[in-house]
Design goal:
With about 280 residues, the protein is of the alpha+beta class. The chain is about 30% helix and about 20% strand. It starts with a helix and ends with a helix. It binds zinc ion (ZN).
Length: about 280
């Protein structure tokens, strides 16, 4: 059984200035094995050791698909009326999606944390003035850019790079094209541009970031920590070297298939969302 004391002990072995460095945490609590006190205990240890902390609190249940929309957007329009009826309105207290993990939801639900307002890709956290409010519908990953600007770090607890949202920031800065999605909010259906591509291929970055990654263990879970700037720089370098880098291998992945098809017909993927929307 993993205890609060053990968690703190492991976090204190990380070799960066934890008190002053903002950290984004991605986690799978079930990867740890049994934790005394569950997600609350891990959240408490994170709050104690990382005063500047954020986590994704994404809400995919808020997504709707219109009858018509831009082409080459990795979506089939007009076939989602049943799912649209099941969609939920984004509210400040909408739980983070289960895919994001119970720990992220525990952080989101804690009275000391704030949350940004993006109807699909919100972030939650505390001690990070200006980071959460930097986000808008145009730039969902502005908080990650702000974290990088403050020399922030990524902390992966029991998850691999497929959960590492900061790689999407590297994709964006590398010019990889993005998608348009729609989120239901109390203000109506909101168009969310710069929605990222898929992250299923992100594990292939692992050998390229070995030198900047600190590795520890908590119970059965692997703990990885690395600086966002180095991660983003490497993402950009990999895509510059090979435009197909970090895409997943699945033939059934609409976003990766769309990007591959475009790369096959266009040597340089410079299509912006604005030109996409005009088509
Ligand atoms: Zn994919």
């Amino acid at each position: 059984m993993i205890t609060y004391r053990q968690l703190v002990h492991v976090f204190r072995q990380l070799k960066f200035d934890r008190r002053n460095t903002p950290v984004i945490v991605h986690s799978s609590l079930s990867a740890f094995g049994k934790v005394q006190g569950g997600a609350e205990t891990v959240a408490g240890a994170l709050f104690a050791e990382f005063p500047k902390l954020i986590a994704p609190s994404f809400t995919y249940k808020t997504m709707v698909v219109p009858e018509l929309g831009p082409q080459r957007n990795a979506l089939e329009y007009g076939k989602h009326s049943d799912a649209n009826r099941m969609a939920e309105f984004f509210r400040p207290d909408t739980p983070a999606d289960r895919l994001i993990g119970i720990l992220a939801e525990t952080i989101r639900a804690h009275p000391s944390t704030d949350r940004s307002k993006h109807p699909i890709l919100s972030f939650t956290g505390r001690g990070v003035n200006g980071v959460l409010t930097s986000q808008d519908l145009q730039e969902p990953f502005a908080p990650l850019y702000a974290l990088m600007d403050q020399d922030g770090w990524v902390l992966l607890l029991g998850v691999d790079h497929r959960a590492n949202t900061s790689i999407h920031l590297g994709e964006r800065l590398a010019g990889r094209r993005t998608f348009v999605r729609w989120g239901l909010s109390t203000e109506g259906v909101q168009q969310c541009i710069n929605f990222p591509s898929c992250s299923e291929g992100f594990e292939t970055i692992t050998p390229h970031v070995t030198l900047i990654t600190q590795r520890l263990r908590i119970g059965r879970a692997q703990v990885l920590a690395l600086p966002i700037r180095g991660l983003v720089d490497m993402t950009q370098a990999l895509i510059a070297d090979n435009p197909y880098a970090l895409l997943c291998k699945s033939d059934n992945c609409p976003r990766c298939r769309t990007l591959r098809a475009e790369l096959e017909t266009r040597p340089l993927p410079t299509l912006s969302n604005q030109s996409l929307l005009r088509e």
